[in-house]
Write a structure and sequence with these properties.
The chain folds into 2 domains: 294 residues, FAD/NAD(P)-binding domain; 199 residues, no CATH class. It contains 17 helices and 20 strands. Strands 1, 2, 3, 4, 5, 6, 17 and 18 form an 8-stranded mixed β-sheet that branches. A 5-stranded parallel β-sheet has the order 7-16-8-9-12, covered by helices on one side. Helix 1 packs parallel to helix 14. It is globular. Bound molecules: NADP nicotinamide-adenine-dinucleotide phosphate. The site of NADP nicotinamide-adenine-dinucleotide phosphate has 24 residues, from helix 5.
């Protein structure tokens, strides 16, 4: 019988799972309950939650609507859980994840406060040997990563950073104790998804807030509020399966109808009417509900971008501040699309100042604050909302080695190479949940996570039923997939901004578009087709033996 998860483990298991967020928890349940396998989860945090365990900054919430941001493996859970907000807020998501861990008795196979230091594929035994920073040495046939796509926070190398004498925090590694901004002079660097959520909330509490902005953003009001109970009870819950089915076949993992209209064919009045309606309703519908060519035709994109700029000018009272906030150097949607609550309105507060660091770059962090080319700003606190070494950072912090002792770091030296974002050639029986090369961060994450969990479960089941000991991406299939991922991204707006999707936020990181932009529905079809063809593009153990001999 599998032992309880405790440090110093030396077990031989069927599977090792890294991470106890949505990805790791759902995977554990599937392997343990549906396939009857022994599995152990290693989790760096002291509790479940993954992304939602670490990102506790003020204002943190998800941009997917709550009724569709959920795990669906249990029909009862789907019916029982009641979200309170239109969008799920971080504390409630964390409660939800804790509820799942308790309800399905998942904690007994999770070892917390434990980081995987290394994972090595032992060719003689066809097993993975995993070592942790707590002295565990565990082997398993399968290694499954649920490490999240945005989980290694990035604090830029700014001169003097260590000298600051006040408090400083990164949004992605926020303390568990409440951070009190009352009476404090706060500086915040970064205006991505995290920054634009945190800024209005901090501004409302702090004595003063200074925002250091490098790239102005397009952001649309979320119109967040309490959940529509009637919609949830009468339309969603009785029809959950159909709603989920639609989400799974969609482009972004949400059950929505994209507009069929083209902005380039509409009159100026029709465009204004559509954009005003989207702005009033709020959320990402502004994009998908107005015109279908915003993401594909720069002329259409320009019309939506100009509308947002007009809203910024209209909202922000000080013309000089408004001008600094206007995004002009990248198309709408080329960086992660943002939705906010009172973001632009916050710049009308007397206690908020905007510093454009493109024009007055940060020179250094001093014991007392931040010095830019033009000014010296004194702070009690600095908040880094400066993002993540996304998609690959967490993988490369671990020493993962496949066949011939090849490290993942070497394998990915020119950027991540995967087959379907699920496997890497030379790393047999290692499966990645939402790895680079899959739609992941371009979608509603829970839909993508569960697609991978189901796929990995079915693949392992197939292997067990067909006496296949190892499955490994074929190098040619992997190269073809990498080419396909690049080709699909090529004509999109995503290629027209310096974003973390391209690794552009991390100095020295290869500039490769990492997620798959073909949409979750198309991707799912491809994955299923591959499975139906006997897992085409994967080398199954018998075939490896043939190749080797
Ligand atoms: P991010 O999108 O990478 O934004 C980082 C911000 O920091 C940007 O404004 C960036 O400026 C700035 N920055 C980075 N390095 C800097 C430097 N050296 N000097 C000055 N400024 C610097 O990170 P994030 O806001 O944490 O979001 C990451 C992702 O997490 C999101 O795209 C999203 O996928 C996810 N997320 C989602 C939600 C949600 O669902 N609502 C909330 C939070 C996060 P530049 O733009 O010029 O690079």
């Amino acid at each position: 019988m599998q032992k309880k998860a405790e440090p110093g483990n030396t077990q031989d298991l069927d599977a090792i799972i890294i991470g106890a967020g949505f990805a790791g928890l759902g995977m554990l349940w599937r392997l343990r309950e549906e396939l009857g396998m022994s599995a152990q989860v290693f989790e760096a945090g002291d509790d479940v939650g993954g992304t939602w365990y670490w990102n506790r900054y003020p204002g943190a919430r998800c941009d997917s609507e709550s009724y569709i941001y959920c795990l669906t493996f249990s029909k009862e859970l789907l019916q029982d859980w009641n979200w309170s907000g239109k969008y799920p807020e971080q504390p409630e998501i964390l409660s939800y994840i804790n509820h799942i861990a308790d309800r399905f008795d998942l904690r007994r196979n999770i070892q917390f406060n434990t980081r995987v230091a290394s994972a090595r594929f032992i060719e003689e035994t066809n097993r993975w040997e995993v070592e942790t920073d707590q002295g565990d040495r565990v082997t398993a046939q399968y290694l499954i990563t649920g490490v999240g796509c945005i989980s290694t926070s990035n604090i830029p190398e700014i001169k003097g950073r260590e000298t600051f004498e006040g408090e400083s925090y990164h949004t992605g590694a926020w303390p568990h104790e409440e951070v009190d901004f009352t009476g404090k002079r706060v500086g915040i660097i970064g205006t991505g998804s995290s920054g634009i959520q945190a800024i209005p909330v901090i501004a409302a509490q702090a004595d003063s807030l200074t925002v250091f902005q490098r790239t102005p953003q397009y952001t649309i009001p979320a119109r967040h509020g309490t959940v529509n109970r009637k919609f949830l009870e009468e339309e969603v819950k009785p029809n959950y399966e159909a709603i989920l089915d639609k989400a799974r076949r969609s482009k972004g993992g949400a059950p929505v109808e994209f507009s069929e209209r083209l902005a380039v064919e509409a009159t100026a009045e029709e465009r204004k009417e559509a954009y005003e309606a989207g702005w009033a309703e709020g959320g990402h519908k502004f994009l998908w509900g107005s015109f279908k060519d915003i993401g594909t035709d720069r002329r259409a994109n320009d019309t939506a971008a100009e509308f947002i700029r007009s809203k910024i000018r209209e909202t922000v009272k000080d013309p000089e501040t408004a001008e600094k906030l206007l995004p002009t150097d990248h198309p709408l949607g080329s960086k992660r699309a943002l939705i906010d609550t009172d973001y632009f309105e916050t710049y009308n507060r007397d206690n908020v100042e905007l510093v454009d660091i493109r024009h007055s770059p940060i020179q250094e962090i001093t014991p007392e604050g931040i010095r830019t080319e033009d000014d010296e700003h004194k702070f009690d606190m600095i908040v880094f909302a400066t993002g993540f070494d996304a998609m690959t950072g967490t993988f490369l912090k671990m020493d993962i080695r496949g066949r011939d002792n090849l490290s993942l770091k070497e394998k990915w030296a020119e950027g991540p190479k995967t087959y379907l974002g699920l496997q890497v050639s030379g790393f047999p029986n290692m499966f990645m949940i939402t790895g680079p090369g899959s739609p992941s961060v371009l979608s509603n994450m829970t839909i993508s996570i569960e697609q991978h969990q189901d796929y990995i479960r079915d693949f392992i089941d197939y292997m067990r039923n067909n006496d296949v000991e190892t499955a490994e991406a074929d190098l040619d299939a992997e190269s073809a997939w990498v080419d396909h991922v690049n080709k699909v991204a090529e004509p999109t707006m995503y290629m027209l901004a310096d974003s973390w999707y391209l690794g552009a936020n991390i100095p020295g990181k290869p500039r490769i578009f990492m997620p798959y932009a073909g949409g979750v529905g198309t991707y799912r079809e491809k994955c299923n087709e591959i499975a139906d063809n006997g897992y085409e593009g994967f080398i199954l153990s018998g075939e490896v033996a043939e190749k080797v001999t």
